[in-house]
Each structure stands twice: as C-alpha cells, then as structure tokens.
Design a protein that fits this description.
By secondary structure, the chain is an alpha/beta fold. Helix content is about 40%, strand content about 20%. Helix 1 runs parallel beside helix 2.
Length: about 300
C-alpha cells in the first residue's frame, strides 16, 4: 500500500505456451519490473472448458503464481455480456461462476468483467437491457463476495460504425449506484472511455465523466492512446500508431491522455490499483511505463474507507 492509500502499480501478463508450462517465466519477468500487482489473462488460458474448470490447467496456473510477493487480479472472459438477450444470460453466468472460482484459487482480489454491449435499439429496449445487467451483475457480486473478490466492471467503446451501444463512464457510475453492491465496482479503462466519448462528440467532457466514475473504480486499466476512431483501413499496426487511431495500448506518455489532470481531479477509493495493459509490441518500454505509472499512482487522490468504531 502506498502512503496515499493506493495499492500501487500492476501490469497485465501475457500467455506464452498454451499449456502454461512457461508462464512462471512471464511472471518472473514482470516481478523484475518492481510492480506490486499482476493481472492474469485467465480469459485466454483454456482453464474454463464448456463452463467447467479443467483442473490440470488450473493447477499449472497455481504453480506459476504461488510464492510471489504480488497482488493478483484476473481478467475473465471478454464475451460475458449481461446486456445480451435474456435466454443467453444463464450461459454467461455459468462462465462467470467458473471464472470467479479460478480467480479465487490463485488468490486474486479483483475480477475484471466487461460492461455490456448491445445493438443500437429504441429506448425501451435499451433500458430493459440495463435492467437485465443490473440484476445479473448483482448476482455476480454475490458470487464474488463468496470468494472474497471484487467484481470490477470495465468501461468499453462500441466501435465507429454506430451499430452497437456502450455506456459512458457516468452512465456506468449511475448503474453501479443503483446496484449498490459492496462487491461490485468498476475497472476504469481511460482509453476505452475517451474513444467512446470521441465517437459521441464529447471529448471535452472526459474529465467530468472520469470524476463521476472514479469513486467506484478500485481497478484501473492504464495505457495510452489518442482516443480516436479506428475508422480507416490500415495495412500494419504501425500505421495505426502513425495516425493515432484506435485502442493502441501504448506506453504511458506516448499518447495524449491527460494523466496528470486525471489524478489531480479524480478521487479514487482506498486500495485503487493502477494496472498497466501494454501491447506486446511495446514491451521494450515496459519499465518506462511502470515508472511513469508508479508516479501517477503516488500522485493520485485516494479517499480512505470508513473505519469501524
């Protein structure tokens, strides 16, 4: 824990071999960066098969993770979507239940789940989807509580073609307030949110939107971008960087995110974790990014949790 009450800085691991036989090497490399936390990409590890846990694969992950002086988070299946059609929600919950068990088995504190997406529809259909999401996230919060986890709902964007709907940071804050579950909070992905607001023509509202969601955000996804739409054909990824288009997952300081203004004006909950999501192609700048993010974490305004009398 940092003096200001933040947990500190983490970074997301990348899977190497599919059988996880060399995942310990990945974690060794990350620990050498001096982080306090590691986010595990459990969505890409073949641990949950048809809604059930494959024990040998979970055992391999546990062996790689054991005995380390770090805090773990787990990023579960990206496809879980509680704004989906009602008939499919039990299948999403089946995957969430198993994934939470995996997170608990490796001692994770936070479980990252994506916020809902849906096709653009008339208002009544949209509000019905929000109703479904609140109900099922609350159920998910109950499961998370059983495992000592926090369910952290990540901000998303919905692309540039206008076919899908994603919620703004302030709308997610409003939904979390209505859910009012002590184990359901937010993963604030700042780049995702800027891309969403850019699409809506509301870039100038970014800081106010961030201030609305920050108090719910126990877990942050830190990576840089320019918040622009990925709306023209590109041949290679480096062209996207040249144009500054899309969800680039750049090292901190390479884009134009207003990091210092974010930490100066937002107030985060005690224990907030600044977790870096760095694209593999920029791993040569990992230490640079960790150092920059550690500085931001130390500058952050953190509100202490109320203490029992």
């Amino acid at each position: 824990m940092l003096p200001n009450g933040a947990t500190g800085t983490g970074i997301s691991a990348h899977k190497r071999a599919n059988d996880l036989s060399d995942f310990a090497d990945e974690l060794d490399m990350i620990e050498a960066l001096g982080v306090e936390a590691i986010e595990l990409p459990t969505y890409d590890m073949d641990i949950v098969i048809g809604g059930k846990i494959r024990q040998p694969q979970l055992d391999a992950l546990r062996r790689a993770c054991s005995g380390r002086n770090v805090v773990y988070s787990a990023h579960g299946a990206l496809a879980i979507n509680f704004m989906d059609e009602p008939w499919r929600l039990p299948r999403h919950m089946e995957v969430l239940k198993a994934s939470l068990e995996v997170a608990a088995e490796v001692g994770a504190e936070h479980y990252v789940i994506h916020s809902g997406l849906m096709p653009q529809q008339q208002g009544d259909a949209v509000e019905a989807a929000y109703d479904r999401q609140r109900e099922w996230l609350s159920r998910g919060g109950d499961l998370a509580a059983e495992h000592g986890l926090y369910l952290c709902v990540e901000t998303l964007f919905a692309g540039y073609n206008g076919r899908e709907l994603a919620m703004s940071p302030s709308r997610l804050a409003s939904e979390l307030d209505k859910i009012a579950h002590p184990r359901v909070g937010a993963t604030f992905d700042f780049s995702h949110s800027l891309i969403k607001l850019d699409y809506d023509g509301r870039r100038e509202d970014f800081i106010e939107e961030a201030k609305a969601l920050a108090p719910w955000s126990r877990h942050l996804h830190i990576h840089d971008s320019f918040g622009r739409q990925d709306d023209i054909w590109m041949y290679v990824e480096s062209e996207r960087v040249a144009y500054g288009h899309g969800d680039l997952h750049l090292p901190v300081g390479w884009g134009d995110m207003q990091w210092e203004k974010i930490v100066a004006e937002c107030e985060f909950p005690e224990g907030v974790l600044f977790n870096i999501e760095l694209d593999k192609r920029y791993w040569y700048a990992a230490q640079e990014t960790v150092d920059a993010t550690r500085r931001l974490a130390g500058m952050a305004r953190v509100k202490a949790a109320p203490r029992a009398a």
